[in-house]
Automatic annotation (TrEMBL):
Residues 92-104 have a biased composition (Low complexity). Residues 118-129 have a biased composition (Acidic residues). Residues 85-129 are annotated as: Disordered. This is Uncharacterized protein. It comes from the Eukaryota.
Length: 129
């Protein structure tokens, strides 16, 4: 009986710690000031780019997950693409949170991903025969 109660209290403590960490992360993201100045962005550190990407990810669901953005150049490209999508959405009057389903070319390719399906199919067919 005591072991069960101890296990339950440990689980509750872990759940509370996790909730606290998630709340702190959400507060940090909410407090992040979005930067749109390209000169300032170009001089950012990896940590600063991560903060900006986390903040932009709140309204731009096309930004890849953090695990796919390991290199500074890729992080910078993702942030600049997000800013570009946002400015294009603002100019066109699109108010769906920065995402545009019809803009295939504005999506960032994932490293190692082949974007041209037709070439991929022909390469696949040649290698299979």
């Amino acid at each position: 009986m005591e072991a069960d109660e101890l296990a339950i209290s440990v689980k509750k403590a872990k759940a509370n710690e996790k909730r606290q960490r998630e709340q702190e992360k959400a507060e940090k993201i909410a407090a992040t000031q979005l930067i749109f100045d390209l000169d300032v962005i170009a001089g950012m550190t990896n940590a600063q780019l991560d903060e900006q990407l986390d903040a932009h990810r709140q309204w731009d669901k096309q930004i890849p997950i953090k695990a796919r953005l390991k290199v500074k150049a890729v992080k910078l490209a993702a942030l600049l693409a997000s800013i570009s999508r946002n400015s294009a959405d603002n100019k066109s009057g699109n108010s769906n949170g920065g995402t545009t389903e019809s803009s295939e070319q504005s999506q960032l390719p994932v490293l190692g991903e082949h974007r041209d399906d037709q070439d991929y199919d022909s390469d696949y067919d040649m290698n299979m025969h």
